[in-house]
Amino acid sequence: MYSINKIGEKNFSLILYCLLNRIPIIVVGNELSEVDDFIAELCDLMHFRKELIYYTDFISESEHQNLCANEEIDYNAQRIIIRCPSNVTLKALKTIKNLKSWVMGVKLPKDDSQRIKFLKELMSEICTFFLIIKISEGMISNELEGDNLEVFNLKMERQILKKISQDTENSIVRMKRVLLQKKLKDKIDEQTLTSLLDFSIEKEEIQKNIFKMEIQNFFSASKRAFFILNRLNLLSSLGLDSSISAKILLSTIDYQDASLERLLSFIYHEWGEDFSLLLKNGKVANIGDHLESLWG
Length: 296
What we know:
The protein is an alpha/beta fold. Helix content is 55%, strand content 12%. It has helices at 4-7, 9-20, 32-45, 61-73, 89-95, 113-124, 155-180, 190-196, 200-237, 246-253, 260-271, 287-295, and strands at 25-29, 50-53, 80-84, 102-107, 129-136, 139-146.
């Protein structure tokens, strides 16, 4: 597995943002197995969504449209994330019109810059913007492509990664402290002690568990905000004053690790609802219009 440390904070923050906001992602690389393994790992990060595999769970554009339509009519339906293996990505790009929440793989021959250029041109006709991740000799780089690109605020994503790193290290320290309290230094040799205190394998598992918990906390808080705002929206449609301040909303959902703007952005992409006009805080007004212009 590609650890957060190996991918790098900057790259991982952008990847996480795109996954959460359902921005299409293409992973390109020279090794087919490496590419397909990586797109599977990316999909696993969004555990609260239902993963479907293109050309296994569905094939046609009409099937895909039905899946998207189900999301639009049922707020409680689990949102989907679609994994597209390398061998069928080009077919998907020629068949599917809406690639929202797709993670696709593409195998590239070495130094095949023309293939990447072709993919960028093809994707630009379908999506307003998308993320290309390139894997080369174990290294990962990524870049957003498309029109109307703006610099995303990745503060929340970076904060999550920072918390994961701190909590993981604290957990490892506590585990080591328990063993060292047994005065092992006086009873075993240094090599055995070093091996005993090596938690590198456990560290990755702890990191994954903390990541899952942090993402679940963000998702659950967003859903609580969605439920409240959806009901306030109903009151507004009845002609009743239903505005709410950002401070009260964040206090109500008991979540302070993301800004209201980030929550609204996620809600818009996850459930397709723009609640910005309900808020008294003018700084987040019309965010839905802005996002709509980006997606087209």
